[in-house]
Amino acid sequence: METPVIDFHCHLGRWGRYGMDDDPADYVRIMDAAGVDKSCVNCINFGDARRGNDLVARVVAERPDRFIGVAYVTPRYLDEAMSELKRCFDVLGFKFLKVYPDYLGKPIDDPDYAPIFEWADERGLVIMSHSSYMPSRGPTAGDNELTRPDRFIALAQQYEKVNWVLAHSGNARPGQEMAIAAARACPNIYLETCTSMAEHDTIELLVNGAGEDRVLYGSDMPLMDARLQVGRVVTADITDEAKIKVLGLNALSLLGSNDA
Question: Quick check: 29 pLDDT over 80?
Fold first, then answer.
């Protein structure tokens, strides 16, 4: 099966707690083993968003044939975030935006995000956000109310020029079902495949539920292994046409370029 493979969800920046090492040479080695052509890389590991975006820019500059730049900002420092958005897209040429509400400690639909989302909507950008939901089964259980997939429905309707990508597609099965419902409700919501919580039929569930044009392959490298995450798509009980779309064609269409 010949197809471009675009990994929509990857990170840079070292994170010792998870043994995360972002050596570009190791990235490329595993990408080659997994058959991944290009990886979309963001860095959310520093309190200083500019520092993380600079790291992304350096890695992309070193290997533009293998890496695609993804911006990250936080509304915690809103003035800095707005100027950093302009730099990332107007100067550095990044392709889309990643946000991570868990660090902010506020939900994805909190008003603090509004200036960022308004700016992105004016430009018709892609925004990818962590999404996860597991019903609580105790005082400390539950993952999590901040990025419940159903929170994205009103956002997608309000900021309709933004294409929203739900990283992890809600993670566990209750979240996945909620993510599928959100994608069905809004044509500008897309689902991304990487997770460590999924059941065996997750890829089939997402493709059959949201449609083969609305699902994107991602690995969460280096927190997870691209080889495993590609294998989940390749061995799924879906058509070859659907696999080709999920592995790369949908990403290329969403990013608006034949070579990203």
Answer: yes
